[in-house]
Design brief:
The complex is a heterotrimer of chains A (104), B (207) and C (696). Chain A has 104 residues and is an all-alpha fold. Chain A contains three helices and no strands. With 207 residues, chain B is an all-alpha fold. The termini of chain B are far apart. Helix content of chain C is 65%, strand content 1%. In chain C, strands 1-2 form a two-stranded antiparallel sheet. Classes of the chains: A mainly alpha (104), B mainly alpha (207), C mainly alpha (696). At the B-C interface, helix 1, helix 2 and helix 6 of B face helix 7, helix 8 and helix 9 of C.
Chain lengths: 104, 207, 696
């Protein structure tokens, strides 16, 4: 039973680490906007980077997906989705902005 | 960690049949979430194509309608609820008993409802200020994207209530356990979507 | 809409003048009479069916054994029945359009509105309610058998998916009687389908039938993918799966990822129409171009989702009737996967002329042409499979060779269209209509008909009449050629698609040839019905209860025909590709296992029917804006779905003794039967036990 408790504490610590990291990343992102100072494009890039890091953090600590997973097919599923999503979202934005430029 | 049968937190072999049964249903639920992610993805892309003078069409823009403080509160509530749901699943995994599980689920439900209250309050302020979806393409896209996430949270809340009923009725039987595991996945997933919403919609709009 | 005033609140915007009978009575033009005639067919047919079922007492077994069944085989058959019923409506509509255009030099007999409704329902039905249920039905029936599984991973969800698909088909059929269907084509482009230009209920019928059926298809995709990943028999590695199962997996992946953009685009259109949103309107920041973008994000993967399983069927057919292993299995698998991924990268070629720059167009043009490469690989693989095979020119092989020749032509016109500069010349002409019929009919429909012929004896225990099969196949192949090859020429002459009439006399001769072809296709449909009736009448002569009439190669043939509800008495162990052919060659295909086990199966449930009823009610209520009924149906559906999760006794057990007895009876029959050689397949001697020949 003590083994189990140790494992529980270990896992609980993982969740808390994930929470703390997410919290920090969120506060920094909101702070950037609340107190301003950065140029629009720099701010956007920083917010984007922070968001991607936080998504990875949440996948790692809350959803328990990581690179060392025993079952690679799960990671493949997520990566394949991201590939298709990138094609769809980036394609949409590319096409629509290209149109917008030509229709101005 | 012991043997992994499916992505995400496993119940572990100490749960016997529930653990084995989880392999198929959890994988299926992951696939469903990825499909749902594509729904969000294309709406995100649509939203991005409307945040410009053409899409705003002379109506209120992001800076006129977003309330950063309220969004921050919502973010905190949802992030914390993700943690509390995580704790609930650990209580389940390590067999800490029905009371602990229900307690942490209740905390999660309360946080989720708090999130929804703040979100609805924001929307009604927007409507009162003339920022309704019928005003512009930009507002249409906003009101398709963010309330869709809210609707997911609301369904998650209903699901939580149903699960608490089933825990009371049946106890922590295998069927209930694997459903809780799926709901946990759903709840964490909604938090991930929210990262996209506050970064792209709110912070991107106010930066 | 203010027309609701007459009837007040309970029926929303419905008024009696919306009934097609009332319209035909008030204004008896040819178009309205045809519409009312079709509506009476639906009503009388429905009534006749109901009366017949009650009178014969068949409703009871149909309810017990079919409508409430969770057996993947029965669900698969019900999908195919749905598809064949809708096919007959779709073909008749197509023939009607051909007749109109044959008479269409400066006139014709249909009104433009009626013609527009015809091409909209024809397209919607053929894509969503013929091709998709046909494909889904085959995947449902065959795939679990091919991988040695007892059922799909989620049998109850499977039934719910079927229910949702039928909701869509039901709504399209109801639109014949109540109101009118959309006139905006199967793609329903706004702003034409927006409230300003189409204030009636037509686009709403389109939206809800497609959106509700689409959710069913997404669930099917999830179910199929999980089944293939998790339910394979021991030893069935991914690279030992039969090719049809591979194509089912790729189709499922496309369903999972391509249906969401459809759901999004249809619901956004609905929000524009119902809630005054501005996604695709002309004013206030709406942008209809995004609709085209979202719709084809779904639409292009969709056509590959339809054609890939047909490729799978052809692969099985070529291998079986050539008596050989598939040539270069691995390259076929990789080509399938490549097509599935590439299908997500080409959607812009549907709107080259929308106004984006040359760089965008050329990127998507090249991506489109690239798809021809894996497809070419497949064509060569199939030809190499036949090369030096011991070919029996059976009915599925007639379809398959017809497919090879015609599909390559259709594919090449696709490569022509993939060039943006050429597309600027021929876009929106009937050249395009000829192209996509040229890929969809030989590609998808012939594949499905080949599969229908190939697997019918598996599902029902008797063969289909070969004689009528040859007649049907020939009529389909030549009917297609006569109908659509002339249309290529008319397209190059500049005839716009979707036009009810034309003023250039040069089109007319081609249109007359095309209507001759349409008559052949109509006869093909008739021959299909005759074939079924003849085969049912002679089912004793055609019976093949032992399960392997064509000397099959994959596991679905290793069961009796029809297979027991649990598929396999004992789950097979797989050691090679084409496992059943290998086992037959080694002489251990029909062995008695050491022991049998109890088998757990899900109990019957009426949830699919409840979803169908509440879903149809919901769709109708939304179309006619009957808000109280919307509420009732939504609550009803939620109660059904959530209530179902409280069921705890959803399973039943078939005792091992019962399984053993059934298996032993089959093994005894096999031991007593005389095997039949490859040339005796089409004779009454064929009871489903194939003689073994030298394996290549």
């Amino acid at each position: 039973m003590t083994d189990d408790n140790a494992e529980l504490h270990h896992e609980l610590r993982q969740y808390l680490i994930g929470f703390a990291l997410s919290l920090a990343l969120t506060v920094v992102a909101f702070g950037l906007v609340a107190w301003g100072g950065l140029a629009f494009k720099t701010a956007l890039a920083t917010i984007g980077a922070l968001a991607i890091i936080q998504i990875i953090v949440q996948f790692r600590y809350f959803l328990h997906i990581d690179l060392s997973a025993q079952k690679r097919e799960d990671l493949h599923l997520v990566l394949f989705t991201i590939l298709l999503l990138t094609i769809m979202a980036a394609g949409t934005i590319w096409i629509m902005s290209n149109l917008a430029v030509r229709m101005m | 960690m012991t043997e992994q049968l499916h992505p995400g937190l496993n119940l572990g072999p100490q749960h016997g049949k529930a653990h084995e049964h989880a392999e198929t249903v959890m994988f299926g639920f992951w696939v469903f979430l990825m499909s749902d992610l594509v729904i969000f993805g294309v709406i995100f892309a649509t939203y991005v194509t409307t945040v410009n003078p053409m899409g705003i069409a002379g109506g209120p823009g992001p800076a006129d309608i977003f309330d950063l403080k309220s969004v921050f509160i919502q973010t905190m509530l949802l992030l914390t609820s993700s943690l509390t749901f995580g704790i609930a699943t650990l209580m389940l995994r390590h067999k800490k008993g029905v009371r602990h599980v229900v307690l942490w689920l209740s905390v999660t439900l309360a946080l989720g409802l708090g999130f929804l209250i703040f979100e609805v309050r924001d929307f009604s302020t927007m409507f009162a200020n003339g920022a309704a979806p019928s005003r512009s393409g930009f507002l249409s896209a906003f009101f398709a994207l963010v309330p869709l996430h809210g609707l997911h949270v609301a369904s998650g809340a209903v699901w939580l209530v149903v699960m608490m009923m089933q825990i009371t009725l049946f106890g922590l039987v295998p069927m209930v356990k694997t459903r809780l595991l799926r709901l946990a996945l759903f709840w964490h997933f909604l938090d991930v979507i929210w990262i996209g919403i506050f970064s792209i919609v709110y912070l991107g709009g106010l930066a | 809409m203010t027309t609701s005033a007459d009837w007040g609140w309970p029926l929303g915007v419905f008024i009696p003048e919306q009934l097609s009978f009332v319209r035909a009575f008030n204004n008896p033009t040819t178009s309205e009479l045809i519409g009312a005639g079709a509506a009476s067919l639906v009503v009388l047919g429905g009534l006749a069916l109901a009366v017949f079922l009650i009178w014969s007492g068949w409703w009871r077994p149909i309810w017990r054994d079919w409508l409430t069944s969770t057996d993947h085989k029965r669900i698969g058959i019900m999908y195919i029945v749905l598809s064949l019923v809708m096919l007959s409506r779709g073909v008749i509509e197509g023939a009607l359009m051909r007749t109109q255009q044959a008479a269409g030099l400066n006139g014709g007999f249909l009104t433009p509105d009626h013609f527009a409704e015809l091409f909209s329902t024809h397209g919607t039905i053929m894509v969503f309610f013929v091709a998709m249920p046909f494909v889904t039905g085959f995947i449902n029936y065959i795939m679990p058998l091919q991988i040695g599984a007892r059922d799909m991973s989620f049998p109850v969800m499977n039934q719910v998916s079927l229910g949702l698909t039928v909701v869509g088909a039901t709504l399209v059929m109801i639109s014949l009687v109540l109101g009118q269907f959309s006139t905006g084509g199967w793609t329903a482009y706004p702003p034409y389908t927006g409230k300003v230009f189409s204030p009636g209920v037509g686009p709403d019928y389109w939206i809800w039938s497609v959106a509700i059926a689409g959710i069913g298809s997404t669930l099917t995709g999830i179910n199929v993918a999980v089944t293939i990943y998790k339910e394979r028999a021991p030893g069935m590695h991914l690279f030992r799966m039969p090719l049809f199962t591979w194509t089912a997996l790729c189709a499922a992946i496309i369903l999972i990822f391509a249906m969401p953009p459809l759901t999004v685009s249809t619901l956004m259109l609905a929000m524009d129409r119902y809630l005054d949103f501005h996604f695709f309107t002309n004013d206030l920041g709406g942008n209809m171009m995004n609709y085209a973008n979202l719709f084809w994000l779904f639409g292009h993967p969709e056509v590959y989702l339809l054609v890939l399983p047909a490729y799978g069927i052809f692969s099985e057919v070529f291998a079986t009737y050539s008596g050989k292993r598939l040539y270069s299995y691995t390259s076929l698998v990789y080509a399938t996967m490549a097509i599935a991924v590439l299908s997500f990268t080409v959607w812009l070629h549907h709107f080259f002329t929308m106004g984006q720059g040359a760089n965008v167009n050329i990127a998507f043009g090249i991506a489109t042409m690239v798809i021809a490469i894996p497809t070419g690989v497949k064509v060569y693989d199939w030809m190499a499979t036949m090369f030096r095979g011991r070919i029996r020119f059976s009915v599925p092989m007639v379809y398959a060779t017809g497919f090879l020749i015609l599909f390559v032509i259709g594919g090449l016109t696709g490569v022509i269209l993939a060039n943006p500069t050429i597309d600027y010349q021929v876009h929106n002409s009937v050249f395009l209509v000829a192209h996509f019929h040229n890929v969809l009919i030989p590609g998808v429909l012939y594949g499905m008909l080949a599969g229908y012929h190939f697997w019918f004896p598996k599902a029902f225990g008797f063969r289909l009449s070969e004689g009528w099969g040859y007649v049907t196949a020939t009529l389909w192949i030549f009917g297609f050629a006569f109908t659509f090859f002339p249309i290529y020429f008319v397209g190059l002459l500049g005839m716009p698609r979707r036009s009810v009439s034309y003023s250039d006399p040069a089109f007319e001769p081609f249109m007359l040839v095309a209507v001759f072809g349409a008559a052949m296709i109509l006869s093909a449909l008739g021959a299909l019905v005759v074939q079924l009736l003849v085969s049912i009448r002679k089912r004793e002569t055609f019976s093949v209860p032992l399960g392997d009439p064509w000397n099959g190669r994959t596991l679905e043939w290793a069961t009796p025909s029809p297979p027991p509800e649990y598929n396999f008495a004992i789950i097979p162990t797989v050691t090679d590709r084409d496992m059943f052919a290998v086992a037959k060659a080694q002489g251990n295909a029909f062995e008695k296992p050491a022991e049998y086990e109890d088998i757990t199966l899900p109990k019957n449930t009426a949830i699919g029917m409840m979803v169908w009823v509440s879903g149809t009610g919901l769709g109708l209520a939304l179309v006619w804006q009957v808000w109280w009924l919307v509420l009732v149906c939504v609550i009803g559906m939620l109660v059904v779905l959530i209530g179902n999760t409280f069921r705890t006794d959803a399973h039943r057990v078939i005792p091992a003794a019962e399984v053993a007895a059934a298996h032993q009876a089959w093994l005894d029959q096999i031991a007593a039967a005389t095997p039949v050689g490859r040339l005796g397949e089409a004779t009454p001697h064929n009871k489903g036990l194939a003689a073994q020949e030298a394996v290549q």
